[in-house]
Amino acid sequence: MILGRSERGKPPIEPLTLKILVAGGFGVGKTTLVGAVSEIRPLRTEELLTEAGRPVDDISGVEAKNTTTVAMDFGRITLREDLVLYLFGTPGQERFWFMWDELAEGALGAVVLADTRRLEDCFAAIDYFERRSIPFLVGVNCFEGAARYPADDIRRALDLDDHVPLLMCDARERESVKEVLVGVVQHAMTQAARHRRAVTT
Questions:
Q1: Is residue 98 part of a domain?
Q2: Which superkingdom is the protein from (predicted)?
Q3: I want to staple 171 with a disulfide (CB 3.0 to 4.6 A). Which of 32, 89, 106, 198 is the partner?
Q4: Could you read off the pLDDT of 52-89 as tens digits, one per residue?
Q5: H or E segment at 173?
Q6: Cα 177 from Cα 161, distance rounded (Å)
Q7: Burial zone of 170 (CB within 10 Å; 0-12 exposed, 13-18 middle, 19+ buried)
């Protein structure tokens, strides 16, 4: 085999790398989602919840959670030979939101994870991406024991624009998460094409 070339004599494909953010409220499953699909060992910056943080950390609905992301989660997944996604999970707690601007730099799009037990917790993430015109998709993480609602009802509760995709998912399942990530890429591409048409007309 010739160094730097594939077995068939063709130059290796230089993959397109894209940055996707995974955002949402505290305990919604962001770290789990990144870990479910990452083909490398995910970089995690989790710390134990402490008594000192109890006055500012609302764990109602996720009382069993004992760690929190304090900077970011990072993972990578190859969707195709020529397409690689870098995943950045944002911290969910309000006191770490100052990091979002840096993490969002250069992002193609975002997944906003939602939990029907704490639906209001994803409003801040939705507002963040809307105000910055970053394409996003809402993934409803279907936790065991959580009430199931029709997608249209959840869309109305979140007051989503018609063009924003909403998918049911399981953040623990690789194939389910892959569908969400493919959906983000497709949505971002559609939005970019729509913007180009608007500029040229």
A1: yes
A2: Bacteria
A3: 32
A4: 444 444 555 545 445 554 457 899 999 889 999 999 99
A5: none
A6: 22
A7: buried
